[in-house]
Amino acid sequence: MVTRQWTARWRGWMLFGAVALACLVLIGPAQPAEAQGQGEEGVWITVGADAFRTLRGEESIRFRGQALVPVAQAEGVVLTQVDGEDLRAISETIHHAHRRCGGFMAHESLAEAQEQMARVARGMGAVEGAPTYLIDQPALVGSLSPQLSESHILGTIQSLSQDFNNRYYRHPSGVAGAEWIRDLWTGYASGTLGVTVELVSHSFAQPSVVLTIPGSTLADEVVVLGGHLDSIAGGSSDPDFVAPGADDNASGIAVISEVARVLLANGFKPQRTVKLMGYAAEEVGLRGSQDIAEAHATGGIDVVSVLQLDMTGFQGSTEDMSLIDDFTNGPLTTYLGQLITTYLTDLTFSTSSCGYACSDHGAWHFEGYPAAFVFEARFGQHNPEIHRTSDTLAPLGNSAAHALKFARLALAYVVETSVDGSELAPIFIDGFESGTTGDWTQTFTE
Ligand code: BES
Ligand code: ZN
Hints:
- Helix content is 37%, strand content 17%.
- It is α/β, with parallel strands linked by helices and 446 residues long.
- The model is unreliable at 1-39 and 423-446 (pLDDT under 50).
């Protein structure tokens, strides 16, 4: 029933295809060669329903001579079986017809494909479950936001993209880059009570990094701000490539780091537990975030919101930011829009779609958690240099001015989702106190 034989035969092709198309074809977790079966039953893929319709209409794409058959469907994703020989044509067809990279996932077995469909179904719950978030901390946000520094953000992007210009998930410098982030965050946490910074290990070399600020009165509820710390260029066949990943995604990590610096320098004491995350191995299939999201789900951890920062440095659209509206939670996304109109009154935003689970928010979404993704531009108008050796500070104008906007939003997000207006106890060690102002209190639900 389950065939993995295509894996060894086609993985090499996929990597070649990735270079040729400047796209990544997603593959599941690596399977040891000895574990691979000998069947000839084709390859299980999950693909967006729109792309599935396109593929089914293609004369040249057939499974055993027949048009593709949908085996299962959930939240606009279809599970189907294809010939291994057709993977290149499938990738090219999706790329051409739908202008997207990574438009399908190839799975090593039916069981793995079904797991993905189950994640998608849980994601449906995440879309429908509508958390209620408030905006009621203008004093805190107002006192912290001006402390965010563009030069700190620029410095972090510079260090990561120049000193660790290959953060590939199984390259030694990809491990060193993660450790450097751990050390940076540990420095910010020094002298604070209860804040921890940890490496989270995976089945591959690169660890993720997690900073935890324990909550006070609502410690069991968790707010996540994250982005990926790995980089990639030119496909993954040559692990020694130069992959500065300045925009993708040193820019997201630099924003998260700056939010950490300002919060910790002010002795921020949230009610909910705040976790800041740098995920390993996003570029090879959301692997670090998938491990972490799965562990939270297995542990029954109540993650109330997740915000993803992946690419914040390049202003490619007339609007300053774009809220991604697929594989994300609608009410949380609406709430982020409200945070922008409340606190970032000088900025504008659009909404746009990736068309697939294009970053780590997808991993949380598939586990049923409410996740949102705020992006540097409308999808398609983003930095054209990503996944290349040329993803350096130069296309960002050697500036973190755009990224700073995301730091302002991310800081407002962390403060507003982790502190409630009803909490009147001081939440800062250093003499600051939270207050509530009736005029600022708004409720957003959908
Ligand atoms: N930063 C990109 C995601 C992205 C690129 C979002 C362009 C919006 C516009 C991310 O690091 C990435 O490359 N993702 C992969 C998919 C992932 C599941 C391997 C992609 O988009 O091909
Ligand atoms: Zn990225």
